Amino acid sequence: MKIIRHTDPGYPAAASALNRRAEASDAVREVVSGVIKAVRERGDAAVLELVEKFDGAKLTPAQMRVPQAELDAAWDAADATLKSALQASQRNVAAFAQRSLRQEWSFKNEQGATVGEVYHPFERVGCYVPGGTAPLVSTSIMTVAIAAAAGVPEIVVCTPCGRDGTVNPGLLAALKLAGATEVYKIGGSQAIAALAFGTETIRPVTKIFGPGNSYVVEAKRQAFGVVSIDLLPGPSEVLILADKSGNPAFIAADILAQAEHGKDSMAGFLTDDAALLDAVVAQVAEQSATLSRQAQLTPVLEKGVFLMLVPSMEEGARLANDFAPEHLTLITTREQDILPLIRTAGAIFLGNYSPVAVGDFLAGPSHTLPTGGSGKSFPGITADMFQRRTSIIRLDRESCARSEPVVSAISAVEGLDAHARSVFIRGV
Ligand SMILES: NC(=O)c1ccc[n+]([C@@H]2O[C@H](COP(=O)([O-])OP(=O)(O)OC[C@H]3O[C@@H](n4cnc5c(N)ncnc54)[C@H](O)[C@@H]3O)[C@@H](O)[C@H]2O)c1
Ligand SMILES: [Zn+2]
């Protein structure tokens, strides 16, 4: 853990280093462009070679898709506690999604033309559900269930399999409940390439959603244009900003919950209270000893966790905006002053009793959120991202006549006389 105080000489540099921009390393970019090229040129064969190389599983093209019967059986076999937990999560997510959906509307413009917007669900989307280091059962709900709530008829999921070629049955159960219509057990950038460009087995989709590691995120970025994408949701992270009202045990628990995501994940803690900083450091040491995922925790605690004593909560909010955290926890007695200052967080958790884990699994908004600083440009997944918008324009003879002088004036400057004629030829 790095501990920096505003009284340290290194503070200005450490504070300005928080002002990040999301960019993949050259090495990741190169690997991914090689993968995309291979999948475009050689389809299934390339996908399966890469699955063997990165995930150690030997599959045939016929084994790529999880049969519907296996999805159904996974749901039937899931234990009752898991089923009701997944259902509770899905109910909250669907209810939240309903409120985010856009409705069609229209109005008459100044010339009397009817103009408006209509929305249709995308026909066929891809949702990536990570599975490299943990089977992200919750991500099934946080992507697929939202697509289903938006009315998307074809929801194609890719998720990596283990060396034995199987996918965690709890994950399959969640996908079934959430409403996945096709599930392929392939992961990584090869899965994104297959979804974007298609292979003999996988028909291409038009938009790709969902989080993943740096390879998955870079593949989505490189596929952009051929498909659209939701955002760039990479390795998970949290930033906690608290004044002396913060509970050190709760804060340490949230830092550790973040750290157990493993490689590349980050947790930061900013406070204006020196005693709280010390108490959180002590709590992290005490609590971390009793957790199971030491292999994931240790490297993150060494490299990915920083604690900073800032001169004020206002300065903390400024640094939080620079960092643009995926999750921001704000604990302060001055919420009305500090909350309005936060503009770039993917999701904001307020007060001592709002653990990020409840947002991960249950609360309602998608947990698929921007990371790596991309929150400055992208929001997290919302239901309306599964809707394609188009505009509608209808004129009658009268509104056409009233539009003519404006069209003629602009056509004259642009030198486009056919444009002007196409209006006045209508007898106006
Ligand atoms: N931002 C969010 O909203 C959000 C939500 C959930 C999860 N996540 C993040 O998703 C990530 C999931 O990562 P993961 O690794 O566990 O699973 P993953 O499914 O994203 O990636 C696993 C795949 O990566 C590929 N891969 C691994 N090493 C590679 C290499 N050297 N070269 C090329 N490809 C390689 C493999 O094909 C493998 O199938 C985590 O970082 C987690 O924090 C983010
Ligand atoms: Zn988490």
Automatic annotation (TrEMBL):
GO BP: L-histidine biosynthetic process
Cofactor binding summary note: Binds 1 zinc ion per subunit.
EC numbers: 1.1.1.23
Active site per database record: 326 (proton acceptor), 327 (proton acceptor)
SUPFAM superfamilies, alphabetized: ALDH-like
Cofactor(s) essential for the protein: Zn(2+)
Superkingdom classification of source: Bacteria
Transmembrane segments: none
UniProt-annotated binding residues for substrate: 236, 258, 261, 327, 360, 414, 419
Sites where the protein binds Zn(2+): 258, 261, 360, 419
Pfam families: Histidinol_dh
Keywords from the UniProt entry: Metal-binding, NAD, Oxidoreductase, Zinc
Top-level class of the enzyme under EC nomenclature: oxidoreductase
Signal sequence annotation: none
Cross-referenced PROSITE patterns: HISOL_DEHYDROGENASE
PANTHER family registered for this protein in UniProt: HISTIDINE BIOSYNTHESIS TRIFUNCTIONAL PROTEIN, HISTIDINOL DEHYDROGENASE HDH
Entry's family note: Belongs to the histidinol dehydrogenase family.
NCBIfam families: hisD (TIGR00069)
Full protein name: Histidinol dehydrogenase
Organism: Prosthecobacter vanneervenii
